[in-house]
Amino acid sequence: MEYLDLAHAHRASGTLRLPGSKSISNRTLLLAALAEGTTRVRGLLDSDDTQVMLESLRRLGVPPAPGERDGEWSVTGAPAGFPVKEASLFLGNAGTAFRSLTAVLALGDGRYRLEGVPRMHERPIGDLVDALRQAGASIDYIAKEGFPPLAIGPRQRRADAVVRVRGDVSSQFLTALLIATGATGGGVRIEVEGELISKPYVEMTLALMARFGVAVAREGWGAFVVPAGARYRSPGAIDVEGDASSASYFLAAGLLGGGPLRVEGVGRASLQGDVRFTEVIEAMGGKVVFGENWIEVSGHPPLKALDADLNRIPDAAMTAAVLALFASGPSRLRNIASWRVKETDRLTAMATELRKLGAGVEEGADYLRITPPAGFADAAPAPGRVAIDTYDDHRMAMCFALASFGPVPIRINDPRCVSKTFPEFFEAWSRVVSDDEVPVIAIDGPSASGKGTVAERVAASLGFRYLDSGALYRLATLQALRRQVSLDDPDAQASAAREMEISFSDGKLWLDGEDVTEAARTEAVSAATSRVAASPAVRQALLERQHRFRQAPGLVADGRDMGSVVFPDAALKVFLTADVATRAERRHKQLMEKGMCAKMPDVVEELRQRDTRDSSRPVAPLKHYPDALFLDTSHLTIDQAVEQVLAWYRERARG
Q: What is the pTM of this model?
């Protein structure tokens, strides 16, 4: 595919599971290959860069074995050194793989040739080579001094106890030295010259080394001591986090497209520094909610202008550059000189492509000042199309997808470059980003009116998602009871409601992957649900959950406040009801089919009391609002009621 034309993006919402982190994937594979024992790696990213590492380990005599599940690999390490002592490795444009393997192989006893694509041969590596030579490495430049390709020979046994490396070009140089010296017995002090950039990536390296049994002592950011006798040992199994850099594109989409948009796989417990991109989201006016393993964003342009030092999140900083198009004034992205030595010169590339969209861009040695084009955040869609060049850089392609929220149609040239870290990016993008407002049909009504059955069948007829709000409150109650949350602690109930994983399918209710259809309908849950549902904190938490069901191609939602509170902008609102006698007959039949004894007068009285409670409650009382079409089903079959709702929707859709 030479290019991809993106539809105008209007809304972004839903939930997305992230692919594994490239940085964690390749570090984990290499550490597992150097460790004593067998490591089961779960959630490994499947991308060009990880394939480069997997193939390199095979060629070095440590072949990873695929597991039974996608993303699962087993690696039996070679703590005494790689078995293959002579090899030629092609490492593409995978900087993490190239630099870390350079260090590990250079401190070994084999002969190797390392090369990559032409762009890799333009990315400087001289500072790492200089540091490795201090540690006794034998490395020659095959072509240009200071750049790949490299020829590596057996390490000389005269090694200095102190190694110095520059920290202001790439943190990958320090990462490579740390991993390599940890594999060769340690006893080395690494001193950093200059300011260390991208510190969170070094923190990630240290945390992973510790997982494999090597704890590095750190003296601020100026020196690191790998202890004598260091030896990697397998932790047995290790899970790869979702990629926080990739999360930034979708979090930014939630900011531009309303949200709420949730990414799963990273959260407050993440090792990755790029989760701090959420600080950019908040600084530009977005709302961020964290879970242990998820992040959710909502917002709307125009955004607040940004002036920030983004040295700690250089990859996610590219996403901020595109968000600057939607700001209310000029933004300044500072301390990003490391962009110059990435897959392309990202400072120049970003400036060039932003100017195509009408932005004023001042490009400095280590900063960009971006003045957004007038009206970009709220202008009507414009004719023509702007083609964005991607420079064989996956992050250029992914971050400029966000420009499709603007008025100018966007074409992404060479979209296949995303295979470096996120091969399915554009497919994932299409699942949560819509080119139009996602339509909602809101069906409200009293208990036993048949709204749930009608709503579910309307959704099936249209191919829309279905939301049963009553079941949602039951699930929240069940979750609170299972976690032994006090019914007098609404904040704890709300926290449990936010974190539960739910779905409705085939008439069943699923909670955290378990079929809880029957458990959610017990008398204990029913009795507690009314108390839980009365809590404003719980209602707010579930309001956010209900909004996430609004995904393309559309949603049918039933409840008692769908059209008034949850989706006041619904394309169609229906108030579906029936007289008390008819509803009582329906409820009595349901109870009898479940083997439950019930007397008709008792059922009638229970419904009358329920109607009184629902219509008189202080928050979102049940009533027929003027903008909802009234449908009395007392004398209609379910099929007739469904057909009426469908006819109304089709009439609205035709305009």
A: 0.65
